[in-house]
Automatic annotation (TrEMBL):
Gene3D superfamilies: Bulb-type lectin domain. SUPFAM superfamilies: alpha-D-mannose-specific plant lectins. PROSITE patterns: BULB_LECTIN (PS50927). Residues 1-61 form the Bulb-type lectin domain. It comes from the Bacteria. This is Bulb-type lectin domain-containing protein. InterPro entries: Bulb-type_lectin_dom, Bulb-type_lectin_dom_sf. It comes from Streptomyces corchorusii.
């Protein structure tokens, strides 16, 4: 997922990162491992899982069906409830 300002990428080493338009990492899940992957679940939870499907990192926002992952105009990456309440924010605004 990306915008003109921010990009969400799973790195080859297994770390989910959010970087700005200059490539500067603004947030990291701090995970490592071959074949890790990220999923945004239908209940509003963003997770990084290992190749063996173990959860390595979670936004802890599950239970919010209809939530959405949003890159805001200020560059902050957030998870918003269906009522637009902020459930999680990466703090990547700049």
């Amino acid at each position: 997922m990306h915008s003109d300002r921010m990009r969400i990428t799973m790195r080859a080493g297994g770390d989910l990162v959010i970087s700005d338009e200059n490539g500067t990492v603004r947030w990291s899940s701090g995970t490592t491992g071959q074949n890790n992957y990220a999923t945004f679940k239908a209940d509003g939870e963003l997770v990084v899982r290992s190749a063996y499907q173990h959860t390595l990192w979670s936004s802890r926002t599950g239970g919010h069906t209809g939530a959405k992952l949003v890159i805001q105009n200020d560059g902050n990456v957030t998870i918003l409830s269906s009522g637009d309440q902020t459930l999680w924010a990466a703090g990547t605004q700049h």
